[in-house]
Amino acid sequence: MVKRVWLLLAFLILLPLINAGSIGISPANFELFFEPNLKRTFDFTVSNADPNAFIEVYTAGDLSGYIKLSGTSFKGIGHLTVSLNLPEKIEIPGKHRILIGARESTGKNNTKSSAGVGGIAAIQAVIDIYVPYPGKYVEADFNINNINKGENALFDLIINNLGTEEINITPVIEVYEKDKKVLTKNIEVGKMLSKEKKVINDFLETSDLNEGIYNISLIIDYGKELKIEKEIRVGYMFVNITDYSYKFVEGKINSFDISVENLWNSKMENVYSEVVVTDKGEVLTNFKTPSINLEPWQKINLTGFFDASDIKEGKYTANLQVFYDGKMNNKLVTIYVFKPKINIWLIAGVIAGACLIIIIMISFIYLILKIRRLKKDAKKSKK
What we know:
The chain is an alpha+beta fold and 383 residues long. The chain has helices at residues 2-20, 344-382; strands at 23-26, 29-33, 39-48, 54-60, 67-69, 73-75, 77-85, 94-105, 122-131, 138-144, 147-148, 153-161, 167-169, 172-177, 180-186, 190-192, 197-204, 212-221, 225-235, 239-244, 247-249, 253-262, 268-279, 282-288, 292-294, 299-307, 314-324, 327-338.
């Protein structure tokens, strides 16, 4: 019964997601810069997985008043033309977003209520309109890849001049190992006109860097300073042991966790651990964990089972060995085996509960006997 309730709850939670996939609108987005009295048209296709179902189209956003739709209701699939007619001036600079939405409808003039379970399946396309900032203004997006030792780091840089003035820039990338600058790269961009966008794909000469984590700063000086900070990891083929279980219970099989981290910027396959437990050099037991695959930089637990059925309370040495790609890393650690703890409060609770049950049963039996006696006395008195 409980399992059925959980399945029902999971279905109700996932139902909106399932419904949302039945409505489609494409393309997903458009971008353009504001121009006074700009007129543009955009073509969309709206669709429903059910060819007999109706789709209602709507608009939202602070500039949606400048939008006209070729239609607001379609059956199954339809072609939608969106006409944009901007005003002479928009006071607020920056990005303005218009949403073109499509949602389920029960008919051309009869829209579903969104108050029901699962709501209405809906999806939205985006028209972003950028209003230039007065003077100089730059936005940028900067991404750089993690690498393995001996490799150069690829990066992507997107620069948008969102101001009304032309700029002249030379972005600088600085790489730091802790507080020490170890690498500098100047990127020749030069002049950028208002509303111009530049995409730069290049690399840093990082092949001489040692393994580790480095901080990176991208600095764009255009009269003001734009600074983007990132982190890059230089990996090497090594699986590090970061933590492990060390307390176990005597006389039982215990789970034994070994926390490991992949320090290689590539996937490692068939990684497993073997644990050897010794007492003054004598091997008491050993076991292996199942093999797993480690994604780049992934941290995970390798779990095996330590049989302490015949091991007495005490301190022991465990050799944790991790095997990967023909290599091995190990760590000698101290582990402890303890006698099972007796929970006095639990025992007291069990005894108290048992006593209470006995008292209730005695009282119940006494009550039944008393009722029978009263009935018998009542019969005698009638006679």
